Amino acid sequence: MNLIVNVDKNWAIGKDNKLLVRIPADMKFFRETTTGKVVVMGRKTLESFPNGLPLKNRTNIVLTSNRDYQVKGALCVHSKEELLEELKKYDSKDIYIIGGESVYRMFLDLCDVAHVTKVDYAYEADTYFPNLDGKPEWRITADSEEQTYFDIEFHWIKYERCDD
Fold first, then answer.
1. Longest Cα pair distance anywhere in the chain, in angstroms?
2. CA dist., res. 18 & res. 80, Å (int)
3. What is the pTM for the complete model shown?
4. CA–CA dist 23, 57 (Å, integer)
5. For residue 159, what are the CA distances in angstroms to 21, 118, 154?
6. SS3 for 23?
Protein backbone atom coordinates (compact mmCIF):
# COMPACT_ATOMS: atom_id res chain seq x y z
CA MET A 1 0.00 0.00 0.00
CA ASN A 2 0.97 3.62 -0.53
CA LEU A 3 0.60 6.86 1.39
CA ILE A 4 0.42 10.22 -0.32
CA VAL A 5 0.69 13.41 1.71
CA ASN A 6 1.75 17.07 1.66
CA VAL A 7 3.68 18.11 4.78
CA ASP A 8 5.40 21.26 6.00
CA LYS A 9 8.90 21.30 7.51
CA ASN A 10 7.43 20.12 10.86
CA TRP A 11 5.45 17.29 9.20
CA ALA A 12 2.21 19.23 9.72
CA ILE A 13 -0.61 18.39 7.29
CA GLY A 14 -3.58 20.55 8.19
CA LYS A 15 -5.43 23.07 10.29
CA ASP A 16 -9.17 23.28 10.95
CA ASN A 17 -9.77 20.37 8.53
CA LYS A 18 -8.10 22.23 5.65
CA LEU A 19 -4.84 21.72 3.80
CA LEU A 20 -2.04 24.04 4.88
CA VAL A 21 -1.23 25.07 1.31
CA ARG A 22 -2.62 24.40 -2.16
CA ILE A 23 0.06 24.07 -4.81
CA PRO A 24 -1.36 23.48 -8.31
CA ALA A 25 1.56 21.27 -9.42
CA ASP A 26 1.17 19.16 -6.27
CA MET A 27 -2.60 18.85 -6.78
CA LYS A 28 -1.83 17.68 -10.33
CA PHE A 29 0.73 15.16 -9.02
CA PHE A 30 -1.86 13.83 -6.53
CA ARG A 31 -4.53 13.60 -9.23
CA GLU A 32 -2.24 11.84 -11.73
CA THR A 33 -0.86 9.45 -9.09
CA THR A 34 -4.25 8.37 -7.69
CA THR A 35 -6.54 8.44 -10.75
CA GLY A 36 -7.83 4.95 -11.49
CA LYS A 37 -6.67 3.77 -8.05
CA VAL A 38 -8.22 3.13 -4.64
CA VAL A 39 -8.11 6.06 -2.19
CA VAL A 40 -8.68 5.48 1.52
CA MET A 41 -9.60 8.35 3.81
CA GLY A 42 -11.35 9.30 6.99
CA ARG A 43 -14.72 11.05 7.04
CA LYS A 44 -13.26 14.48 7.84
CA THR A 45 -10.88 14.23 4.89
CA LEU A 46 -13.80 13.46 2.57
CA GLU A 47 -15.76 16.38 4.01
CA SER A 48 -12.81 18.70 3.32
CA PHE A 49 -13.14 18.08 -0.46
CA PRO A 50 -15.17 20.49 -2.64
CA ASN A 51 -18.85 19.94 -1.74
CA GLY A 52 -17.75 16.95 0.39
CA LEU A 53 -17.86 14.74 -2.70
CA PRO A 54 -15.69 11.69 -3.44
CA LEU A 55 -12.79 12.06 -5.86
CA LYS A 56 -13.64 11.37 -9.50
CA ASN A 57 -12.20 8.39 -11.39
CA ARG A 58 -11.09 6.59 -8.23
CA THR A 59 -12.53 3.99 -5.87
CA ASN A 60 -13.22 6.03 -2.71
CA ILE A 61 -13.29 4.20 0.62
CA VAL A 62 -14.19 6.19 3.74
CA LEU A 63 -13.40 4.98 7.24
CA THR A 64 -15.90 6.30 9.79
CA SER A 65 -17.18 5.06 13.13
CA ASN A 66 -20.63 6.48 12.29
CA ARG A 67 -22.58 3.47 10.99
CA ASP A 68 -25.30 5.76 9.56
CA TYR A 69 -22.84 7.80 7.49
CA GLN A 70 -23.26 7.34 3.76
CA VAL A 71 -22.06 9.28 0.76
CA LYS A 72 -22.94 8.72 -2.87
CA GLY A 73 -19.98 7.44 -4.87
CA ALA A 74 -18.00 6.14 -1.90
CA LEU A 75 -17.91 2.95 0.12
CA CYS A 76 -18.09 3.50 3.88
CA VAL A 77 -16.45 1.08 6.29
CA HIS A 78 -16.51 1.28 10.07
CA SER A 79 -13.36 -0.37 11.41
CA LYS A 80 -9.77 -1.10 10.49
CA GLU A 81 -10.68 -4.79 10.21
CA GLU A 82 -13.60 -4.10 7.86
CA LEU A 83 -11.38 -1.83 5.76
CA LEU A 84 -8.59 -4.42 5.51
CA GLU A 85 -11.13 -7.04 4.43
CA GLU A 86 -12.41 -4.70 1.70
CA LEU A 87 -8.88 -3.88 0.52
CA LYS A 88 -8.18 -7.58 -0.16
CA LYS A 89 -10.22 -7.07 -3.36
CA TYR A 90 -7.56 -4.74 -4.79
CA ASP A 91 -3.90 -4.91 -5.76
CA SER A 92 -1.94 -3.48 -2.84
CA LYS A 93 0.14 -1.24 -5.14
CA ASP A 94 -3.08 0.47 -6.32
CA ILE A 95 -4.15 1.52 -2.81
CA TYR A 96 -3.38 5.03 -1.55
CA ILE A 97 -3.97 6.21 2.01
CA ILE A 98 -4.81 9.92 1.66
CA GLY A 99 -5.57 11.05 5.22
CA GLY A 100 -6.22 12.38 7.70
CA GLU A 101 -3.86 12.09 10.61
CA SER A 102 -5.53 9.16 12.40
CA VAL A 103 -5.92 7.15 9.17
CA TYR A 104 -2.28 7.79 8.22
CA ARG A 105 -1.14 6.65 11.67
CA MET A 106 -3.41 3.59 11.58
CA PHE A 107 -2.00 2.36 8.25
CA LEU A 108 1.60 3.61 8.24
CA ASP A 109 3.00 0.23 9.29
CA LEU A 110 1.06 -1.53 6.51
CA CYS A 111 2.44 0.68 3.73
CA ASP A 112 5.59 0.20 1.67
CA VAL A 113 5.76 3.51 -0.19
CA ALA A 114 5.10 7.09 0.91
CA HIS A 115 4.84 9.91 -1.62
CA VAL A 116 5.60 13.02 0.42
CA THR A 117 5.44 16.58 -0.86
CA LYS A 118 7.65 18.43 1.60
CA VAL A 119 7.11 22.20 1.79
CA ASP A 120 10.00 24.27 3.13
CA TYR A 121 7.90 26.34 5.50
CA ALA A 122 6.38 25.90 8.97
CA TYR A 123 2.66 26.61 9.06
CA GLU A 124 0.33 26.94 12.02
CA ALA A 125 -1.28 23.50 12.21
CA ASP A 126 -3.32 21.11 14.33
CA THR A 127 -2.73 17.80 12.51
CA TYR A 128 0.51 16.02 11.72
CA PHE A 129 1.97 13.14 9.73
CA PRO A 130 4.56 10.87 11.40
CA ASN A 131 8.11 12.11 10.76
CA LEU A 132 9.51 9.47 8.39
CA ASP A 133 13.01 10.97 8.67
CA GLY A 134 13.01 9.81 12.29
CA LYS A 135 11.96 6.26 11.43
CA PRO A 136 14.89 4.00 10.47
CA GLU A 137 12.62 1.60 8.56
CA TRP A 138 11.83 4.35 6.00
CA ARG A 139 14.39 5.46 3.44
CA ILE A 140 14.32 8.20 0.80
CA THR A 141 14.56 6.52 -2.61
CA ALA A 142 13.77 9.53 -4.81
CA ASP A 143 13.90 13.31 -4.35
CA SER A 144 12.89 15.83 -6.99
CA GLU A 145 14.70 19.01 -7.84
CA GLU A 146 13.51 21.91 -5.72
CA GLN A 147 10.17 23.19 -7.02
CA THR A 148 8.73 26.65 -6.45
CA TYR A 149 5.23 28.07 -6.51
CA PHE A 150 5.41 31.83 -5.97
CA ASP A 151 7.55 31.99 -2.80
CA ILE A 152 6.84 28.42 -1.70
CA GLU A 153 9.67 25.92 -2.12
CA PHE A 154 8.93 22.20 -2.06
CA HIS A 155 10.21 18.76 -3.05
CA TRP A 156 8.49 15.56 -4.05
CA ILE A 157 10.13 12.83 -1.99
CA LYS A 158 9.53 9.11 -2.27
CA TYR A 159 10.13 7.06 0.86
CA GLU A 160 10.20 3.29 0.85
CA ARG A 161 10.10 0.85 3.73
CA CYS A 162 13.28 -1.19 4.00
CA ASP A 163 13.59 -4.31 6.10
CA ASP A 164 17.28 -4.30 6.93
1. 46
2. 24
3. 0.96
4. 21
5. 21, 12, 15
6. coil
Domain ranges of the chain: 2-161
Give per-residue pLDDT as tens, 82-136: 999 999 999 999 999 999 999 999 999 999 999 999 999 999 999 999 999 999 9
Q: Which fold has domain 2-161?
A: Dihydrofolate Reductase, subunit A (3.40.430)
CA angle 55-22-46, nearest 5°? Answer: 30
- For residue 32, what is the DSSP state? H
* Per-residue pLDDT tens over the stretch 72-83: 999 999 999 999
DSSP 36-88: TSEEEEEHHHHHHSGGGPPPTTSEEEEE-S-TT---TTEEEE-SHHHHHHHHT
